[in-house]
Amino acid sequence: MSTSWHYLKDGVQAGPATTEEIKNLITSGAIKADAMVWHEGMAAWAPANGQTEFAGAVPPAAAPPPPAPAAAPLTGAADVEQNKVFAILCYLPPLLFLVPLFAARQSKFAMYHCNQGLVLTLAAFAVSIANMILDRILWYVPAIGFLMITLLNLAIFVGIIVLVVMGIINAANGVCKPLPVIGSRFTLVK
To answer: Where are the domains of the chain?
Structure first.
């Protein structure tokens, strides 16, 4: 005598069905292999793929997809040559990184340097704000406060100029190289 199974399809109870009918439903894809099934004598509903009666009906797992091909180079030679000027503009203050954002949006090379210029600009603004606060505090330090303010302002100015020059050199040489300290930490423009 065949077992009468009940099963859930799309949340609705169906059946009774024979073991062979449930196997056919699973094999054809009419119900999923983990569809809940029950027959008289079972304590509770259980997934079909957990029942020995349906072991042959569960299709084997699909082979994993092949690995993705190696990443293509960031930019092509034609892209670099066509967009060097836009890449260089990205490092010139205060907001020239916006020019390639609108004029060379399709260029991976220009967008890489646009991101670097944007991150550099935001970092310069943040450091300038922190520096103004620190200047106000150091102003009250007797004797050496003024000297400390001067040295701090000079170090910040020189640091920003060095990063700007490095960015311009990288862009002019057609290189996508992150700026030290800030360059590889943030991707704001893709």
So the answer is: 5-54, 77-172
Question: How buried is 84 (Cβ within 10 angstroms: 0-12 exposed, 13-18 middle, 19+ buried)?
Answer: middle
Taking only the tens of pLDDT, the chain with its 190 residues reads 577 889 888 878 888 888 888 888 888 888 888 888 988 888 888 888 888 887 766 665 556 677 655 544 444 777 788 888 888 887 787 777 677 777 777 888 888 888 888 888 888 888 888 888 887 887 777 778 778 878 888 888 888 888 888 888 888 888 888 888 776 666 666 6
Closest CA to 170 of 181, 157, 180, 160: 180
The secondary structure of residue 73, as a DSSP letter, is P
Q: How far is CA 126 from CA 121, 133, 154, in A?
A: 9, 11, 16
Q: Is 3.30.1490 the CATH classification of the domain at 5-54? A: yes
Rounded Cα distance, 103 and 86, in Å? 8
41 CB-near residues (< 8 Å, 6+ apart): none
| Residue 72 DSSP one-character state | P
Q: Where does the chain have alpha helices with state H?
A: 19-28, 77-89, 98-103, 108-138, 145-172
**Nearest by Cα to 89 from 167, 11, 35, 175:** 167
